[in-house]
Amino acid sequence: MTFDTETTRLPLALRTEALESILLERQLVDPKVMDTYIRMYEQDIGPLNGAKVVARAWVDPEYKARLLENGTSGAAELGYKGPQGEHIVVVENTPSVHNAVVCTLCSCYPWPLLGLPPTWYKDPAYRARIVREPRALLAEMGLTLGDDVEIRVWDSSSEVRYFVLPERPAGTENLSEEELAALVTRDAMAGIARVAAPAAV
Ligand SMILES: [Co+2]
């Protein structure tokens, strides 16, 4: 196929996504192979970085202040920087405010902190509904928020990538930074879940 001039002016991420769809449609790429790579980035490379940032912010108020002030340099303090992470903005969840992240145009995502975006993040239904009816959609995804909690939805773009600093769960006062990081999930850092308290022992 050929790209006309209009198409070539589209952002790179959108063109890549279009290309991925075509490859999958024509069965030129095995979706299982692609999923393996995505899982590798999601589970081994990506979210672990973000989880360490969250844990540091939970234990170090001065770091947290710097991170909220400038997400890019805050992440870089821990060594996380690079493509798709040039302009990271960190938004903090509190008991009264819940933040969720989307890219309504394509699938912009803070790669250095979270790796590659998961399938649901790229789903057109998620991208449309999280803006239109965030409370209902989050509930469907397993996160029920009280009516007293304000939901803020942040639209990422090739310019700005948003990252959610989740709330530290109760009952974690005695955990080490490393143990805290192990609790933090990708979904919590994208704003579709909370960080669960550790199971009681
Ligand atoms: Co995008």
What would a concise description of this structure say?
The protein is mainly alpha-helical and 201 residues long. The protein folds into 2 domains: 12-43; 46-190, Nitrile hydratase alpha /Thiocyanate hydrolase gamma (Nitrile Hydratase, Chain A, Alpha-Beta Complex).
Describe this structure in words.
With about 200 residues, this protein is mainly alpha-helical. The chain has two domains: about 10-45; about 45-190, Nitrile hydratase alpha /Thiocyanate hydrolase gamma (Nitrile Hydratase, Chain A, Alpha-Beta Complex). It contains eleven helices and four strands, in the order H-H-H-H-H-E-E-H-H-H-H-E-E-H-H. Helix 3 packs across helix 10 (about 175-185) and helix 4 (about 60-70) crosses helix 5 (about 70-75). The longest helix has 29 residues, at about 30-60. It is globular. The N and C termini lie far apart (about 60 Å). It binds cobalt (II) ion. Cobalt (II) ion binds near residues 103, 105 and 108.
